[in-house]
Amino acid sequence: MTTVTGTQLAASSGRRAQNPRVSPHFRYQDSNLIIRSSDEMEFHVHKSIMSSSSRVFRDMLSLDTQNLSTTSDLPLVDVSEESDVIEAALRFLYPLPRPILKSLSPMVVLFELADKYDIPLINFTLQEILSQSDLLTLETVRTFGIAKKFNL
Question: Where does the BTB domain start and stop, copy by copy (predicted)?
Fold first, then answer.
């Protein structure tokens, strides 16, 4: 299982790495899309899963193919999030063990990602995790603030 500790958002470089690092969990042989994080980790995923999970990816992949880099055989999408956040998010979309979220900080980062890319499944699942955790009683005010910010 993956433990998420939070991250900083950074701008993507927009260039293809010479020796790309590929996520060990997301390197599917039949992948047809590469998502590259700001720290140059590549995730070889499926357009169908990304499109059905995220309205932003659906629109981007169906309408805006000009902005996708195709320097390899697969289209490449650069994102501004670091690899630990992308990996955690993809674990909600693929049949892999979900990340272990021990504090509110990584939840906030994932709520932001779910909002940015319009991924209702991540938002819904995080709400369930939050409502069943001890964080509601341990960090009541902060939990309320998160609920208010993300209209939960």
Answer: 29-94
Report pTM: 0.77
Exposure on the CB side of residue 75, measured as CA atoms within 13 A: 16
21-150 is a CATH 3.30.710.10 domain: yes
**Residue 125 · residue 92 · CB < 8 Å:** yes
Helical packing angle, 104-116 and 120-132, nearest 10°: 160
Length of the chain: 152
C-alpha closest to that of 45 among 117, 142, 127: 117
∠16-20-24 over CA atoms, to 5°?
Answer: 140
- Beta pairing, strands 33-36 & 41-45: antiparallel
Q: What is the pLDDT of residues 93-121, one digit of tens each?
A: 999 999 888 888 899 999 999 999 999 99
Residue 123: both structure tokens together: 């938002």
**Axis-axis angle for helices 140-149, 104-116 (nearest 10):** 0
